[in-house]
Amino acid sequence: MKRSNDRILTTHTGSLPLPAPVRQALSAKRRGEAYDQAVIDATLTTAIGEVVRRQKEVGIDIVNDGELSKTAWNDYVVHRVSGLERRLRSRARSSEPWSIAQGIVRPRNTGLVRRDLDGAPRHYRADIAEFYDLARAQTDAHDNGGMAYVCTGPIGWTDFAAVETDLNRLASSVAATQPHDVFMSALSPGCFARFFRNEFYPNEETYLQAVADAMHLEYQAIVDAGFVLQLDCPDLASGANTDYAGLSIKQFRKVIERHVECLNYALRTIPREQVRIHVCWGNYAGPHHRDIALRDVIDIVLKANVTGITIESANPRHGHEWKIWQDIKLPDGKILFPGVIDDLSYFIEHPELVAERIVRFAKLVGKENVIACTDCGLRHLPDAGLAFAKLYALSEGAKLASQELWG
To answer: Rounded CA gap, 351 and 397, in Å?
Structure first.
């Protein structure tokens, strides 16, 4: 993994807007409807080369394939592994309507109360569920029409060739453009277990180990191809107001301790220098007032046997949390990838603001230990040009920060 040795390097967290034919086909695939794989394959042949070229054009140093072949960052695995069955199972619940008495921060000693209330809308996300008109208006993508995949059999690969195809496409694209470095994303074991409930293995520990053993093959293949592996780990933060909303902070910490232990087991043969993880609170427009604080999870996150950690740091709910690095030491050898671009806003950040954010982190953890990043993925933006304009703002801000930090 490259470091910011003489300037601030730039990257993003993975997803970029899809070409229209791919978007339509993958949407049908995700819903379990008929789709044309030939359309996907034909479009991706050129689209991945183009997305790599555009990343380099706007000044991104560490590029990827935009996750263009995946239905989503998490459920791509349901089309590639065995043991998962699509069933009628809603993950949405109701909540009491927000009031001043409930406050605007997550309670520490109790979980969030989720139950079905007469006349109240249901939503997967606890924060949105408290605001009834918002919950009714906002599409609940994670509920998938009340359908969900559950584990009903042994976890194993049925289409590992899809992983190999992804790797070959990306390798071909970067050979033509020669970027500074390359990464590829994959689902973490903890997020796998979070999204696909176990109904087959005797207990959660056995399930997590089976998932880790299976996903290890994908992780190893990515690293063997010469790419940096990014494991998507929003379970370590966003899980606190969704699947684990009913837990207290103390109880939630025990869950993610197990998830990090499992992650380290899955990485047992992979050099930490080749791995980064992405931690976030959910890539969605919502109140986020029930997000768990970074300070409540960062010590566990830092136990991951990886070098890089990307963390949301630009959005209005977590933009203040850079302060934790005033008294928490970034362990030797690790690299912090702070989000300095808010992926949910259509605003294109001014480069001077981006530079200000970067310099703030660099002065706290060391400039060589910072790589500038986005908060989360950009696939949801309605215009690909807007996504790349925001990435250009990231790279221009990094240039200004480099001038200030290196002179």
So the answer is: 4
